[in-house]
Design a protein that fits this description.
binds cytidine-5'-monophosphate; 10 helices; 4-stranded antiparallel β-sheet; single chain
C-alpha cells in the first residue's frame, strides 16, 4: 500500500523577529500564507528507512540529505516514538519547492511525511498531537500541516488561522544559490535589530478586505536587511521586481527567494514573462492554498 501527501510552500506576509531566546531561537510574530507550489511525499511500507528525491525541471536538490538526516525520515521516527511503535517506510519525495529558498520546502516534506505515515500505518494521531510533533521537527512544520493563512507566534510553531478573503497571486523568483536560515538569523543578531514584537493589525485588515494595493503596503520582513548584507546581489532582483510592475517586492522568509504581489493571475503572468528574461526559473502561484493533504491512497 502507498499513500501520497501533497504539502505547500509557505511565504511570510509579515515576519517580525524579536530578540534571541535562551534556546537559540527567536521569538516571532509572523503571518504565514501557503502558496501553490508543492512537494509530494509518497510513503510505502518497508523493512528499513529509505528516502529518494526527484525533481521536475532544473531544481538543485544536491543539498537534500538522502539518509537518516532527511527531515521526512526524522518525522517518521518522531511519529513512531510518539506511538511507541517500531515501524519503517520508504519515502519518495517529488520536489517542486526550491531548496534553502526561504519557502519551507523541508518543512513541507516533514508535514507531508507525518500525514502520509499516519494514514499508511492507520495510527489516527489526533490533530493536536500531530501539531506538537511537527513543532518539534521545525518552526514552520505545523504551518505546513494547517496551510491557508495563519498567525504564527512562539518560534513560529504556534499557529492560528487568520481571516483572509483574498485570492492572491504571487510571482516567485528563486535564486540559484540557497541561503542558510541560521546564518541569516545570526546576521540579524549581529545587526542588533531585535525589536519589540507587535501583531500586524494593518495586515490583518488588508487580508480581510482582499485589496492587493492595501496588502502590498503592509508586507514586511524584518530579516530582509540581514539577508541583503549577506547577499548584496539580491538587491538587483528586488529592483527588477519593482520595475516589472509588481505591487511589492518581498523577501520570502530568510531568503533568497523574492516574491512579487500581482493584481490577479494575468498580471502575475505578465510580471513572470518580464522577469523570465533575466531569471531561469520564475513561478506564478496562488495563495492561500490547503495544507498537507492526501492526494492518492492505493
Ligand atoms: O526551526 P528550524 O529548524 O526551521 O530553524 C532553523 C534555524 O533558524 C534555527 O536553527 C535557528 O538558527 C533559526 N531560527 C531562529 N528563530 C526561529 C526560527 C528559526 O533563530 N524562530
Amino acid at each position: 500500500m502507498t499513500v501520497t501527501v501533497r504539502a505547500p510552500a509557505k511565504i511570510n506576509l509579515h515576519l517580525g523577529v524579536g530578540p534571541g531566546r535562551p534556546d537559540g531561537y527567536h521569538q516571532l510574530a509572523t503571518v504565514y500564507q501557503a502558496i501553490g507550489v508543492y512537494d509530494d511525499v509518497t510513503a510505502t511500507a518497508a523493512d528499513t528507512w529509505s528516502v529518494t528525491v526527484t525533481v521536475a525541471g532544473d531544481l538543485d536538490v544536491s543539498d537534500v540529505p538522502l539518509d537518516e538526516h532527511n527531515i521526512a525520515i526524522r518525522a517518521g521516527r518522531e511519529l513512531c516514538a510518539h506511538h511507541g511503535v517500531d515501524l519503517c517506510a520508504r519515502l519518495d519525495i517529488a520536489k517542486s519547492i526550491p531548496v534553502a529558498g526561504g519557502l519551507a520546502g523541508g518543512s513541507a516534506d516533514a508535514a507531508a511525511a507525518l500525514v502520509a505515515l499516519d494514514r499508511l500505518w492507520d495510527l489516527r494521531t489526533p490533530d493536536d498531537d500531530l501539531l506538537a510533533i511537527a513543532g518539534r521537527l521545525g518552526s514552520d512544520v505545523p504551518f505546513a500541516l494547517v496551510g491557508g493563512t495563519a498567525y504564527g507566534t512562539g518560534r513560529g510553531e504556534l499557529v492560528e488561522p487568520v481571516t483572509d478573503r483574498g485570492e492572491w497571486w504571487w510571482v516567485v523568483v528563486p535564486n540559484a544559490a540557497g541561503l542558510s536560515t541560521a546564518a541569516v538569523y545570526a546576521q540579524y543578531d549581529a545587526l542588533g535589530l531585535g525589536e519589540h514584537l507587535r501583531a500586524p493589525e494593518g495586515l490583518f485588515t488588508a487580508l480581510a478586505d482582499a485589496r492587493p494595493e492595501a496588502l502590498a503596503a503592509e508586507l514586511h520582513n524584518d530579516l530582509e536587511p540581514a539577508a541583503l548584507q549577506l547577499r548584496p546581489d539580491l538587491l538587483e532582483t528586488r529592483a527588477e521586481i519593482t520595475q516589472s510592475g509588481g505591487f511589492a517586492a518581498l523577501l520570502s522568509g530568510s531568503g533568497p527567494t523574492w516574491l512579487a504581489l500581482a493584481d490577479g493571475a494575468e498580471h502575475a503572468r505578465d510580471i513572470a514573462t518580464e522577469l523570465g528574461r533575466t531569471h531561469p526559473v520564475v513561478l506564478c502561484a496562488p495563495g492561500p492554498v490547503a495544507g498537507a493533504h492526501v492526494v492518492t491512497y492505493a
